[in-house]
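The pair is set out directly below:
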Amino acid sequence: MNKKMTFETALKRLSEIVDLLEKGDTPLEESMKLFEEGSELAAFCYHKLSAAEQKIKTITEKGEQADGQD
């Protein structure tokens, strides 16, 4: 997977893979490759979202601490 891939790019590709697999007309071997790629993309997106959530929590906590020091 491309190290410089963005969350948005990964999510778009994941959506494409889901669409392809839902159609059901992809040969088994290709479906397995798509499933593997999709699994990797899903994990990538999950980690990106987790990191963003943690950053938001950190920023929010800093803001609350600063508000309490007035």
